[in-house]
């Protein structure tokens, strides 16, 4: 197993333990096993055409979240397993998913609201959003003011040593601002194509070459320094 293959005899990581448990649950014979009743395939949920058509509103996002992450049936309340001795699967189910899944649901709501899913490239960073959401919803920070992503202490310390590349202006502009820039450039181009403007630009070019403005300025400052 992956746990036994840990290099140097070190203790297996959480990811290696998860992979080992997953491999142990796989059937010994080739072939695709039939899905268990009540389970939902994440790949099928993401790639099914009906889900793609539903990505148009926040209510549709709720439907997709419920289908991808079905709510388990009510079960008797039991004490959570010991995080130091429980299996990797139990640790994820009891300590990771209850915290992470609400953040993913909020992430989908935000994407639907801002319509990021309608564009091929955006400035939106899902990891940054989840980091900010998890930090501000930490029970230890209850009643504390909201902190933006770039103001989080550990984020500031990390970015000091690992600065990011600046985001392209094309991703920062809104559709309205981008349309204004494109329209103004096109109007200027159409004006410069007219015969009268071309004649004026040609005359200005000849005037600059004839008068040699750079040499004139150079001589002027030479006379000033000579005084």
UniProtKB/TrEMBL annotation:
Classification via InterPro entries: IQ_motif_EF-hand-BS, IQCK
TM region(s), chain numbering: none
Entry superkingdom: Eukaryota
PROSITE patterns per UniProt: IQ
UniProt name for this protein: IQCK protein
Originating species: Oreotrochilus melanogaster
Classification lineage: Eukaryota, Metazoa, Chordata, Craniata, Vertebrata
Gene giving rise to this polypeptide: Iqck
